[in-house]
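#struct-help
A.M.: can someone run this one for me? Single chain, 300 residues.
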Amino acid sequence: MAKKLKFHRSPCNPILTPTQNWWETRLTCNAGVIRLGDRIHLFYTARGQDDVARIGYARLSGYDQVEERLPHPVLVPEDWFEQDGVEDPRVIPLDGQVRVIYAGKERDMARPCETAIDPQHLLKGHWAWSKHRLLLPTMVGFHNRNVAYFPRRIADRYVLLHRPMTLAEHVWLSYSYDLVHWYDHQELLTPRPGYWDDAKVGIAGPPLELDDCWLLIYHGVEARTWTYRLGYVLLDKEVPEHILERSEEPILEPEEEYERVGVAPNVVFSCGGFLDGRTLVLYYGAADQVLCVAWAEIPW
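D.P.: on it. Structure tokens below:
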């Protein structure tokens, strides 16, 4: 039977809001996250009056206390495939690097792109990113969003979650030996008629490893109201295309005013979180405008 999670919203919500900095005057939301040592590092989506998405950086002490927030973006468009913006970053520690997968915007097209940084450079604020690259160049002709690696290899293969938007907006899983050539593409997660996620689904952040399985948070959209909510699936640890459990009800949905009113009303949208012992800490964009955090004890 699917479990229910009771999330506690931070009393500091929203923890990031737009500022007078020219590149983040309209929205600051949808953040990837990594915890290094006793600090939490957020890479968040921002837009200013030019409507170009860029990625900003903030460092937290504790789950919700902003210790540092840079006045300039740390990731900006560099190549033709992202000329109109970089947004919705997912942050994955993999092979000794901090990898960031984000949506690169080019006109009306969104494609998964990747860059990486040495963790020591990140800690020193030395933003020496690797060259930006298209993650799935053979799929360059159509939208693909909500993309992340598993944080380690499984049976010596890298595993990728993504949502190629061809005929329907479902979550797919693919394998690779080298992070370049991808194969064995399999449909993993689909909308459910009559449920809160009947219109489309997409992953939140990268999967989180539990003792016996993987915990994957995802967003689902209800067709009738176009409300974005969050749910979960548990995936087999060695055969991740096998779903062990899926939430019947949403685990987080728009309730507070800052989640119901904004650029896009009635939206909670996560790009990542982490486990602190048995506590799941989840960062999420609210109403496509501000960034929030909530946490819950997990039962697995």
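A.M.: thanks! The CA atoms of residues 4 and 251 lie 7 Å apart.
D.P.: also worth noting: Residues 119-124 form the longest helix (6 residues).
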